[in-house]
Write a structure and sequence with these properties.
Helices cover 25% and strands 23% of the residues. With 191 residues, the protein is an alpha+beta fold. The protein is globular.
Amino acid sequence: MTEELPEIPDVPLRDDADDFFPTHVYEALGIDPRGYAERIGGAVMVVAKQPEGGPLVMMTSGVSRLPTESGERVELAVEVSEDQQGAGWVALEIVCNDIAMNRRVPPVGVPWVNSEPIFTDTAITAIMVTESRWGAEFDEVRGEHGEIVGHVRTLRLLTGAEAELAAAEGFAAVVDQAGSLDALIDVERGK
């Protein structure tokens, strides 16, 4: 279902690393993470968590160490079904690669649209960063004194029609049209 992506280039990591991001990823959703042996670009770990009755949430740990033009620090998350973890991995890898190569953090609410499907035999052609379903407790990474030091950015995998609707009316319109966030998880929809 997925195409082979180029390796993420070696880039110097930030030297102002702290424990706020890994601690946040570990504690998020109140669930211990399951780690994957493979890493993205050699430096970014990926972990999975599954809230009771919810989707599988794949999260990065290490993206916050990549330097960005804005100085903003982020980790990434994506919601997938258990049998589509490969799609989640590819989405995380695409965005990690963009951050590493272009030193930019993907903007919230702006779909990135590819001319061809991102995954073989699917209609998914776009990735969009949105707020998570869990709100600020999940989305905001806080420092020692409660100050916001960065964010977890949730990636959504969209069809071309969904991306057009999101660009015109916002992600809430896509959710309304689909009926729920859960209806947007299956990457084989719309094919």
